[in-house]
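Case 395 in the screening queue. Each case pairs one protein sequence with one candidate compound; here the compound is iron/sulfur cluster. For every case the pipeline is the same: read the inputs, emit a complex structure as tokens, and attach any notable structural observations.

Predict complex for case 395.
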Amino acid sequence: MVRAFLFGEPGKPGESLEGESGNEATRGRDPRPDVRPGVAPGVRPDLKGFLPQEISEFLASLGEPSYRGTQVFSWIHQKGVASFDEMTNLPLALRRKLDEVARLANLEVLARKSGTQGTVKYLLGLGDGNSVEAVRMKYTYGTSACVSTQVGCKMACRFCASGAAGFVRNLTPGEIVDEVLKMNLDLSRESSASREPQTRPRIGWVVLMGTGEPLDNYDASVKALRVLNAEEGLNVSYRRMTVSTCGLVPGIRRLAEEGIPVTLSISLHAPTDDLRDEIMPINRRYPIPEVTDAASFYATRTGRRVTFEYALMRDVNDDVSHARRLAGLLSGMLAHVNLIPLNPVKERGYARPPRERVMRFLAVLKEARIPVTIRRELGLDIDAACGQLRRRYCR
Ligand code: SF4
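Case 395 output:
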């Protein structure tokens, strides 16, 4: 799968492969005719991946007034219901009709692991028997949801547990949205006994940084962000959303023109093409100069500072000379470096550098006036490197 990706056989990065990998195309088939243009014939549309206006149009096609669309969207996104039957202010006949002609993605919490510092990791089951991971993280400023966009990944980064397991399929917009909704519901339930509904904590930040490459599932990822941004739902500001990519240049350029000013986070992890070729095979297709050009384009078009993620791996990319090269690369760019002492992945043989080496790397970037932070180390205690919980659960 990875070879095929690198040599361009199944689909180009930056283009959605939705439907190509197919489980969504074969799941939930129904002989009744579809009532919504743009949805594959025979597949009941998943309203969890619809914008409020789209739900209203869908209901209008069933002869329902437009305010029903607002009601349905609110049941899904504010009350977090899992079925049409729970939408008790809809007439029973309409609930039954919706059951026949539509569906709602409904992920199942298969495992839930709480760590220190308010971090909770979820293993979420999909309707076809696959599963994905998502993480809820608590910060002083609020709660963030880090979600997956694919089952597995094609990119084969050498240090990554998800990359090791290969690619299975893309998630649909509704599935990506439901990862956030499930964590939001959980968060709300935790505090429901002690607080009024309007003061309960909610997910306020969304990060596409779980398993998978969001720009390789471009359409579904962007659609999910638009749905999560909808005022009538979770209303997460685009400025509080982050799309993380391993550097799919066409996707970065396309996102820059999308009109959604999300934070772009690029996993760089090496300052030279030779080293990046070794640890991130995607670099052979989109080398560093193309990635940094696309990053500058993104920063110019959106006015947003681009984050470069740099996972520090002991004796691989953590030398002072690497820090100097990195500083040279990013000098003058509207950029910020996020250093991540690697969460060790046993199977992959990469180790975390000692603290003094991390601090030396940081100091070199600071001296060069590159904005830099060290990522708060969440999740070491809960297998929070992508793919670790899923692999443990599936063993
Ligand atoms: S680090 Fe991200 S892009 Fe690379 S293999 Fe893992 S999930 Fe895919």
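Case 395 observations:
- The mean pLDDT is 85.
- The chain is about 35% helix and 15% strand.
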